[in-house]
Amino acid sequence: MSGRDRERGEVDEGESLLEVRNLCKYFDNDGGLFGGMTLDREFPFVSRNPSTVRAVEDVSFDIKKGETLGLVGESGCGKSTLARTVLRLLDPTSGSVDFKGEDLATISGEPLRRKRQDMQMIFQDPQSSLDPRMKVGPIVEEPMRAHGMLDEEGREARAKELLEKVGLDPQHYNRYPHAFSGGQRQRVNLARALSVNPDFIVCDEPVSALDVSIQAQVLNTMQDLQDEFDLTYLFIAHDLSVIRHISDRVAVMYLGQMVELADKEELFENPQHPYTQALLDAIPVPDPRSGGRTNLLTGDVPSPIDPPSGCRFRTRCPVLIQPDEFDMSDGEWSAVVEFQRAVKRREFETTNRREVRQQYFEEAPTGDAGTLIDDALSHISDEEWAEAEALLTESFADASVCATDEPAYEVSPNLGDGRHYAACHRVRDAAVASGAAADLDAPGSGPVEELGADD
Ligand SMILES: Nc1ncnc2c1ncn2[C@@H]1O[C@H](COP(=O)(O)OP(=O)(O)OP(=O)(O)O)[C@@H](O)[C@H]1O
Ligand code: SF4
Ligand SMILES: [Mg+2]
Fold first, then answer.
1. Do residues 295 and 280 touch, judged by C-beta distance below 8 A?
2. Where does ligand 2 bind, in terms of residues with CB under 6 Å?
């Protein structure tokens, strides 16, 4: 190890380059002159509702040197916020981000600036991230200049060399960004990120704005560069085929939390979390191995200002767990869940008791559950929606273990020997039966305390 390596805290291949633990990032929307203000129809016409957006909550994971961790999830689930907080472009609310043995959450000023040389970011929109008034050469040289790397001649030589490495012509050094296609601009961004010789690059939807035909070419270049420059990637995408192309491991996020994390093949072939299963089912290519799963996602993503208790996916989960006090068949329980969610959304064309019952309950539950459904139907026929909603929510949805306990489990993988984390109580129930589950015993502790401990 050279003196410079020691100074930069070099990490060996396969060791953890990044260890994120219990990371939270909240945004307060009560700042500023009109922060948290809402307009009302009645006097005093304006009310103040300061609120906190819990964009990233209790997220833990590792990234090993040389690997690509893919990060996937619906729009607004917190992928970019997580990435920016990891890089300390945003200050974490709590938690730690250990990068090459130093907690980024606790440093600032010059030490942080020096660390930034090792961590670069590439954004989705290659157009807006390049200054249109600057030529490509100086754009690529800019980070080197900021970190005092090389002299002018050396920077120019390195910029030209990097342009070639990313698949551009070194003669393009004197061109302006507008002369390039989207794919070429993203290659300029790659050269720029590489210029300071980083270890770690966060790629936030880097190919999402490109034509599908160009995406694979840019992804292949990124993989070649990873091998050549010994890079580690955190790669964000909403497109699962892109994630499958580039990742070694994949993390799935939902509403600010990580719900599943496993080796790529394990995740795609043996998904455990109902949300991951739904995402995979939504891929338009028919997969004969899927066994005809039809867990298509319905309902809106809840607000990160007031996320659901327990499992955050529970308000949309197609396989919510029945509370212990009931003993309904699967069909009866599904009907109850569908009915409760429809009442919450006030989704009825009629309030006629007999018609509503017919619409939702081919198999009507009996016993206590049946009595509760009857009471809710009475409220609906009297147009007492709030009462019907409260009764159903309290008796069924909020009584589920999915609402009362936050899930965090590790399961035995079917493929390979990597670790498989899934935040779903069903995983525990299924794996306990086979003796495979390890309850992390730390609700929300995320993908495994001591992930790297026995590696
Ligand atoms: N500066 C901010 N102030 C308040 N809320 C914010 C801020 N930045 C992000 N958010 C909120 O945090 C949540 C996560 O946003 P984020 O941009 O991280 O999601 P994302 O997964 O990257 O989405 P996309 O796929 O659309 O890029 C959203 O609810 C968003 O509205
Ligand atoms: S914990 Fe419950 S609500 Fe959450 S994914 Fe699992 S079954 Fe669905
Ligand atoms: Mg984003």
1. no
2. 273-274, 311, 313-314, 317, 319-321, 402, 407, 424-426
